[in-house]
Design goal:
By secondary structure, this protein is of the alpha+beta class. It is built from 2 helices and 7 strands. Strands 1-7-4 form a 3-stranded antiparallel sheet, covered by helices on one side. Strands 2-3 form a two-stranded antiparallel sheet. The longest helix has 17 residues.
Length: 148
């Protein structure tokens, strides 16, 4: 039995829609053939080209999702489920995150103590610095629908 056949028989369906990151890239100059030819230096024919700037994808963002694609995918999923006789009851976002930090201190040293889980800290007149950041992004959407 196919997934579509199984879903038709179910009273409640849960669908996951994955969010994709936006493509990133750069403008590059490329030679585009014009369809014309001209005589070369030694009598042969050479294709005529013109320089044109084009956007070339180099990868995907690591922090910005493609909201338009996610909206289109959501609309498509809602349409499919409604066509199968379901009513959308809930749409929930799935959120992920990333973080980083760094800390450094000068003039302080610490050594693990032999017979305990603590550390001996020594030194004084020290200074330290640190930073940290974190952010979240929508990883996808969960759509819940019930048979009408």
């Amino acid at each position: 039995m196919s997934q579509a056949d199984q879903e038709i028989m179910q009273a409640t369906i849960v669908r996951y829609i994955r969010a994709n990151f936006v493509p990133i890239g750069k403008e590059v100059t490329v030679n585009v053939p014009t369809g014309e030819t001209k005589k070369g230096l030694f009598g042969g024919e050479k294709k005529v080209t013109r320089k044109e700037k084009q956007w070339q994808q180099t990868g995907y963002s690591d922090s910005v999702i493609d909201g338009q694609k996610l909206a289109n995918d959501l609309q498509s999923t809602i349409g499919e489920l409604e066509d199968q006789g379901y009513k959308i009851t809930q749409i929930t976002s799935v959120v992920s995150g990333a973080y980083n930090f760094q800390y450094s201190a000068r003039g302080i040293s610490s050594n693990k103590r032999v017979l305990s889980d603590t550390e001996k800290v020594s030194g004084g007149g020290s200074y330290g610095y640190g930073y940290g950041y974190g952010y979240s992004y929508t990883n996808g959407l969960i759509v819940v629908a019930e048979k009408r």
